[in-house]
Amino acid sequence: xxxxxxxxxxxxxxxxxxxxxxxxxxxxxxxxxxxxxxxxxxxxxxxxxxxxxxxxxxxxxxxxxxxxxxxxxxxxxxxxxxxxxxxxxxxxxxxxxxxxxxxxxxxxxxxxxxxxxxxxxxxxxxxxxxxxxxxxxxxxxxxxxxxxxxxxxxxxxxxxxxxxxxxxxxxxxxxxxxxxxxxxxxxxxxxxxxxxxxxxxxxxxxxx
Length: 208
Prior knowledge:
By secondary structure, this protein is an alpha+beta fold. It is 16% helix and 40% strand.
C-alpha cells in the first residue's frame, strides 16, 4: 500500500472515530437524567431578595424583570454546584442582557446583548475583564435561535470544560481551569436596562 493511500485510510478512520465520539456525546447529553431546579410554583431553593420587585412565578414560568430604577439583580440558588448538566427553556423579546452564572470565580453564559460589545452574544461565555475571548464565543447561533420564542439551552460544566447546546445543536465549548470551585447557579437581570426574561423547565443533574 502506498504512503498516500495509507494516509488517506488513516484520515478516514480518524474522521469516523471523531464522528462516533461526537454522536455519543450528543446521545449522552440527551439521556442525562435531570431534576427540577425550579419547581414551577415558587422560588423555593433560591435566595430571594426582600423586597423582591425582580422575580415572580406565573403559570410555571420564572419571570425576571427590571425594577423602575433598573437596579438589576442576580437570583442565586441556595445550593452550590460544580460538575453538572443544566437545561432550561428561555424566552424574551426586544433587547435584554441576562444569563446563567456558575462556578467560582464566576463564569457567565450570556443571553442577549452584551453591554460592552453592543451585540448579541447569546450562548457565549463572559469571563469578566477579558470579555468574550474568541474561544469562548458561540458559533452558528443565528441558525438555531428561534426569535421571540422558547429556546432550549443545555449547559454542561465538567471539570475544566464548559459545553453549550442550543435546540439540540452544540454551539460552544470552552476550556478554562480558572473556574474550578463550586458556586451557586444564578439568573441575571443586568442593571441599567429595562428588560424582561422568562425561564421554564429549569432542570439540573449533578455529575461526578
